[in-house]
Design a protein that fits this description.
This is Prolyl-tRNA editing enzyme YbaK/EbsC (Cys-tRNA(Pro) deacylase). Pfam families: tRNA_edit. One of its GO terms (molecular function) is aminoacyl-tRNA deacylase activity. This protein is about 25% helix and about 30% strand. The protein is built from 7 helices and 13 strands. Strand 1 and strand 2 form a beta hairpin. The longest helix is centred in the N-terminal third of the chain and has 9 residues. The protein starts with a strand and ends with a strand.
Amino acid sequence: MRFGTLDFTPAADSPALLAASTAAAIGAMQAADASGVLVAAIDPGLADTAAFCEHYEIAMGDGANCVIVQARRGERTWFAACLVRGADRHDVNGAVRRHLGARKLSFAPMEAAVERSAMEYGGITPIGLPADWPILVDESVAAHERLIVGSGIRGSKLLVTGALLAGLPNAEVLPIAQPAA
C-alpha cells in the first residue's frame, strides 16, 4: 500500500524493520489486527516528525507522536505513553497529569524512555511498550483512519488505524491534545 511517497508492506513479514518488542507485540495480535499493521523503511535521519512529513509528503495530522511521560506521586514513580497527532501538542500538565493521578508529571528523560521502552529515541511506538504502562490515546488519533507511528526503530515507520491504537492493551481514549500554536 502506498501512503505519501512510501510503499508499506505487512509488518509481520518484516521483523528486521521493527524493534524486538514491537515485532513480538504484532506477533501476539489476532491475525486480523496484525495484518493491518504495515511497515516501510525510511531514512533514519528523517525519523523526526517534521522532517519525515516534509520529505515523504505526509501531512502532520496523518501521524501520531508517541511521547513517554514520567509521573510521580509521593514515593511512587511510573511511566505512561501519550499519543497525539503530529499537528497537535500534548496537554501534559493538565489532562494527562489529572488522568494519571500524578502530583508531578514531566516528559521522561530520553535515556529513561529509551532504556525502559527498549526502543530507539525518535522511533518509540505504543505497540510493544511494557505491559504495565498506560497508553493514553487522544480522541482524534482513535478516530483517524490511517496514521503513521514509530516502529520502535528510527529506520522505519508503521501505518495503522486509530482503532488499532485505541484497542491496544492498556489503551485509554481521552482528550489529551491541544492544537499547536
